[in-house]
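User: Sequence recovery, please. Input:
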């Protein structure tokens, strides 16, 4: 479908939702490259001010894309998307959606210290303190 022919933003938003669903299904089927393509097309349908007007849809498209990028072994692409989400996210819980796939990626790469560091940073942001050495009772 040629997006240039769709000039009403309401229709483009509906198409973006369909691309989101297609991307999620492709990702669930381990077709990560296809998922990234669908999700990128969904992002292309969004208005310039989509982070303000269609926040949930925009957030979901970006988070799903960065997850698929990590799963497809492309951390550079995922990190670029992560930076965008971290800048635009309205809540701490939305920001945390970025860290979970990062942690999983580092674990699959056997980079445990990086995974632990990110996990500790997230816990710190949630005001959950861990002791370096637990108290002795």
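Assistant: Recovered sequence (137 residues):
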């Amino acid at each position: 479908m040629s997006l240039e022919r769709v000039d009403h933003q309401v229709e483009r938003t509906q198409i973006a939702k369909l691309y989101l669903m297609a991307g999620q299904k492709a990702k669930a089927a381990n077709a990560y490259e296809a998922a990234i393509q669908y999700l990128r097309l969904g992002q292309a349908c969004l208005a310039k001010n989509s982070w303000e007007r269609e926040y949930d849809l925009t957030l979901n498209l970006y988070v799903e894309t960065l997850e698929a990028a990590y799963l497809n072994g492309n951390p550079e692409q995922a990190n670029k998307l992560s930076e965008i989400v971290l800048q635009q996210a309205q809540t701490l819980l939305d920001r945390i959606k970025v860290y979970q796939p990062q942690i999983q990626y580092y674990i699959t790469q056997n980079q445990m210290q990086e995974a632990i560091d990110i996990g500790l940073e997230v816990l710190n942001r949630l005001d959950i303190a861990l002791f370096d050495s637990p108290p002795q009772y």
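The longest helix spans residues 9-28.
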